[in-house]
Design goal:
The chain is 79% helix and 1% strand. It is mainly α. The chain has a domain of 186 residues: MetI-like fold (Orthogonal Bundle). Helix 6 packs across helix 9. It is globular. The N and C termini lie close together (10 Å).
């Protein structure tokens, strides 16, 4: 197990290094001068030159990359010239709302998707199974902003159950202000849960050990909950980890729709103002979240299933 963990950690570090390289050079390929954009064209050439020197933008590109990489390893993401503040402090103020939205959306996707997948797997190819798959596919096909607007229109403006904008911290504040955007994320992601878990359950429920459990007089609910779900849920767990990127992308849109002060709205503002340091930090943060989620999913699978550790050797 230790060898497997070390190999997966090493692979994660290589991916993060590649992510650092990609984010740095892709940002520098964007046309336009960030200093001129920040100073709104009102500064003199000398002031622009001084600002470029302070930010290190007058150095060779490779020198800028080495400086960026060494500072990133130390946890220093630089200074935002658009906000005239540390990037770390700006992101720290915004990341709580986005993290709460992502976690809330994932929880809702499981609460919606897992029961529907079990019902569909127990009655495969019936009218209920077909209705569940059609309904979840429909919500997955809807754009996030449109689904969020429809939820805001129905449950916010018409029924007045939830607010349609703003963010409040704390459990009560999160449940009140983030339910609608989290539900938009959860409905879209529940399609992945239903399709993956249903397929795995159908395969596992035909196994010999499941038939043996049924022959011992176990109820179908106990067979599914105690035996089938443990082996079926691992593939769903992996897909959920991979779809962290989908959730992050969804928050960028939904934070604009519901006026949530998270890192998604911060990213859009940074792109408009060509704020290199902030864009690089947020891109690296999003990529690191995906890598970390995949690593946790792989290690969890290895802990639950020894065959994965043996295959890794």
């Amino acid at each position: 197990m230790l060898t497997y963990v070390i190999r997966r950690l090493g692979l994660a570090l290589v991916v993060l290094l590649g992510l650092c390289i990609a984010t740095f050079f892709m940002i520098h390929l964007v046309p336009g001068d960030p200093v001129r954009a920040a100073l709104a064209g009102r500064a003199s050439p000398d002031a622009i030159a001084r600002a470029r020197h302070q930010l290190g933008l007058d150095r060779p590109v490779l020198s800028q990359f080495w400086l960026y990489l060494s500072h990133t390893v130390q946890g220093n993401f630089g200074t935002s010239f658009a906000y005239n503040s540390s990037v770390g402090s700006i992101v720290g103020q915004r990341i709580g709302a986005s993290a709460a939205l992502i976690v809330y959306g994932m929880v809702l996707s499981l609460l919606i998707g897992v029961p529907l997948a079990i019902v569909a797997a127990l009655r495969p190819n019936g009218w209920l199974d077909n209705a569940i798959r059609a309904g979840t596919t429909l919500t997955f096909a809807m754009p996030a902003f449109w689904l969020g607007l429809m939820l805001a229109l129905i449950f916010g403006l018409s029924l007045k159950w939830f607010p349609v904008s703003g963010y409040s911290s704390g459990v009560g504040g999160i449940l009140r202000t983030l339910t609608l955007p989290a539900l938009a994320l959860g409905l879209a992601l529940s399609t992945v849960v239903v399709r993956t878990l249903r397929s795995s359950l159908l395969e596992v429920l035909q196994s010999e050990y499941i038939e043996a459990a049924r022959s011992r007089g176990m109820t179908e609910l106990r067979v599914v909950g105690k035996h089938a779900m443990r082996n079926s849920f691992m593939s769903t767990l992996t897909l959920l980890a991979v779809n962290i990127g989908f959730l992050i992308g969804g928050t960028v849109v939904l934070e604009q729709v519901f006026q949530i002060p998270g890192v998604g709205s911060l990213l859009l503002d940074a792109v408009k103002q060509r704020d290199y340091a902030t864009i690089q930090a947020l891109a690296l943060l999003a990529g690191a979240a995906v890598v970390l989620a995949s690593l946790v999913a792989d290690l969890t699978q290895a802990a639950l299933d020894p065959r994965i550790r043996l295959a890794g050797r």
